[in-house]
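Progress note, sequence design subtask.
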């Protein structure tokens, strides 16, 4: 595609919506990664510990 065609296609509401959805997807991906890390850390905190000797 030449420069004028590319510019015409990328200046449309559909293109703007596409870019916004991509940004939202990237943010969601980062949020899920952070959530998984927190859940993993919490799971490690809840592992049963060996009983102390009496």
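Output:
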């Amino acid at each position: 595609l030449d420069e004028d065609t590319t510019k015409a296609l990328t200046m449309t509401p559909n293109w703007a919506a596409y870019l916004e959805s991509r940004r939202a997807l990237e943010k969601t991906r980062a949020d899920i990664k952070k959530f998984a890390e927190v859940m993993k850390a919490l799971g490690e905190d809840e592992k049963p510990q060996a009983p102390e000797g009496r």
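The helical segments are 3-10, 13-45. Work on this subtask will continue into the next period as scheduled.
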